[in-house]
Amino acid sequence: MNPLPRRASLISHHIDTFDVSLTRSFTGGAERYASSVVAATTGPIDEPRSPSYEVRWIDGDPENPRNWSLLYKTIVVASMGYSATVITLASTCYSVTIPGLEDELGITKIVGLLGITTYLLGMAAGSLLLAPVSEMYGRRPVYFVSVGLFTIMTLPVALAHNIETILVFRFLSAFFGSAMVSNSPGSVSDVVSDHHRPMAFGFWAIGPLNGPVLGSILGGFIYQYLGWRWTNWIIMIMGGLSFVLLAFVKETYTPILLRKRAQKERADTNDPKWWSAYDNNLPFLSFCRINISRPIVMILTEPICIFWDSYVAVSYGILYLCFVSYPIAFQTNRGWSPGIGGLSYLGIGCGTLITIFMEPVLRCWIRSHPKDPETGVVPPEATVKPITVGAICLAVGQIWFAWTSTPNVHWVVPILAGIPFGAGNAALFIYSSNYLAHSYGQYAASALAGNTVVRSILGAVLPLAGPSMYATLGLNWGGFLLGMAETICILIPFVFLYYGHRIRRASPLIQQMQQERDARLGATRAFEDNPKFSAS
User: Fold this and answer.
1) CA distances from 442 to 6, 13, 296, 300, 448 (A)
2) The whole model's pTM is what?
3) What is the pLDDT of residues 451-489, one digit of tens each?
4) Contact, 243 vs 152, CB < 8 A?
5) SS3 for 107?
6) Mean pLDDT on 440-447
7) What sign results for the dihedral spanned by CA atoms 359, 360, 365, 371?
8) Could you give the residue ranges of the DSSP H alpha helices within 270-302?
9) 80 in a domain, yes or no?
10) CB burial of residue 164 (10 Å; 0-12, 13-18, 19+)
């Protein structure tokens, strides 16, 4: 007897049980919260309202961000990408200046590394607040305030004469700048269709994904020839340019646009019947509480967020450990200067670009995925395909670097290890962000903000453990240990590729969003069938 059908039946049984356990384990009480989350954005349905008075997008509506011209969409995505690049670049531009801080301020290396920690913690804290605020008031005003304050908060760092000033204002600059990293993918999602989202994310990610690499290269040469203070002056100049570019970007968030359009119609016609699906009557404080707490609750209760946030956090933490291990491998052990030492990250940068420029090929691969019979379109799980390959590349690159990073191996070999490592990181970041955005729709900014929080915390903590870990285990065994952690994580994308649709069905927020859509459709039909409302 062929054992495969029996085995498949057992696997299916375990997956079905897994669905139930996911719902019970992660969503106890989350359904009630999900209901309030949706109501905070869409508003409660008190009674059927006339569909003839509903403000919504129609085909070809020029105010719909997805109907903007290709040129303007490109400007929007490029502006978002550049601004996010400035923020990520600032995180590592500092790392290469730590020896200068040690000499001038009389601090230890561990204290110097706290500048990276406080910066990433600032990004985590800022993402919790600023992403939901953008869903309350729109993305554009948040971007202006965030980039402006990020630039201003960099000034005290450039003028600092003690480490305390540097740590405090790096935290504050990252806090405000975090909106560009956590929210800009939401803006990208706002202006492109599902079909073109992977390509748009890839274009947007060219800068942010290479930001840490560019920061190390740029910072190395600036520090070597101009000193550590000039790294901050350059960042301020780049932040000012970002502020100017954002002046050309219009609001992209559909709930805000339709809510304002409905308000305008009511004011212009003096008719209160005009409404949008995103009107709400919640008290201001309740609205704030729900929107600001949403990313935290999603991190703790949404199975999709729990798994992807954890995986991306591990990858991100190991990436920031590279800014501890690479200086040891190339500057300490090989005697390279800070500027030349920064070039050792080119392997990671090249790997990132390979993934981005392969987007047309990867898009064809994604489109070849079987379509969802219910919707007739390719499901979100199709975007996980590139991650399955990227996850393997990520682990291979890390283990490759671990065993070739010592001086007895030619320097080009560990640099080449950065190519699969960077390619895997890029695939994980781009396509996991796409999966989250596709799964959560209008709450993409909150889902991505939660992702930023978790990965920033791990990225903040791991570099502090780096010096002692490498001093105890060495570059070989320390790097190999990290490679094993990434090898274990390879299971996550494969689970989502084959069973992601079931995991999505276990999501309380996605369930509630679907119920809300069904309820509104039912309300519209009730109006059409009810003579009382039809006559009004």
Assistant:
1) 42, 33, 17, 19, 11
2) 0.78
3) 888 988 898 888 888 888 999 999 999 999 999 999 999
4) no
5) coil
6) 78
7) positive
8) 284-301
9) yes
10) exposed
Query: 340 — alpha (psi -120 to 50), left (phi > 0) or beta?
Result: alpha
- 3-class DSSP state for residue 275? strand
* Nearest alpha-carbon partner for 406 in 338, 334, 323, 481: 334
Phi, psi of 54 (to 5 degrees): -80, 135
* Residue 389 structural domain: 57-252+289-505
The total number of residues shown for the chain amounts to: 536
> What phi and psi, each to the nearest 5 degrees, are found at residue 411?
-60, -25
Report yes or no: 276 and 55 within 8 Å, Cβ to Cβ: yes
- DSSP single-letter state for residue 409: S
CB 506 within 8 A of CB 23: yes
Structure tokens at 368: 């070849």
The answer to whether position 226 is within a domain reads yes
Q: State residue 427's pLDDT score.
A: 93
Within a domain: 432: yes
Residue 10 CB neighbours (<10 A)? 11
Tokens of 449: 């903000």
- Which residues sit opposite 275 in a β-bridge? 54
User: For residues 214 and 207, what is the distance between their CA atoms, to the nearest angstrom?
Assistant: 9
Cα dihedral sign, 290-295-298-300: negative
DSSP 8-class letter at 44: -
CATH at residue 431: 1.20.1250.20
Helix %, strand %, coil % of the chain (to 5) = 80, 0, 20
- Structural domain includes residue 35: no
Retrieve residue 163's tokens: 């480490």
Question: 72: which 2 tokens?
Answer: 């303007």
CB 254 within 8 A of CB 442: yes
Q: Number of H helices and number of E strands within the chain?
A: 22, 0
For residue 480, what are the CA distances in angstroms to 345, 349, 423, 492?
19, 21, 19, 20
Q: How many Cβ atoms are within 10 Å of 374's Cβ, its own excluded?
A: 8
Q: What are the φ and ψ backbone dihedral angles of 286, each rounded to 5 degrees?
A: -65, -40
**Cα 317–Cα 386–Cα 356 angle in degrees, nearest 5:** 75
Task: Count the neighbouring beta carbons within 10 Å of the beta carbon of residue 256.
Answer: 19
Nearest CA to 366 out of 387, 390, 385 is that of 385
Q: What is the DSSP letter of 54?
A: B
- Number of domain units in the chain: 1
The Cα 128–Cα 294 span in angstroms is 9
Cβ 346 vs Cβ 213: under 8 Å:
yes
Three-state SS string over 367-387 comes to: HCCCCCCCCCCCCHHHHHHHH
For 162-206, how does the pLDDT look when each residue is reduced to its tens digit (9 = 90+)?
A: 999 999 999 999 999 988 887 888 888 889 887 787 788 778 888
Nearest to 228 by CA among 99, 323, 324: 99
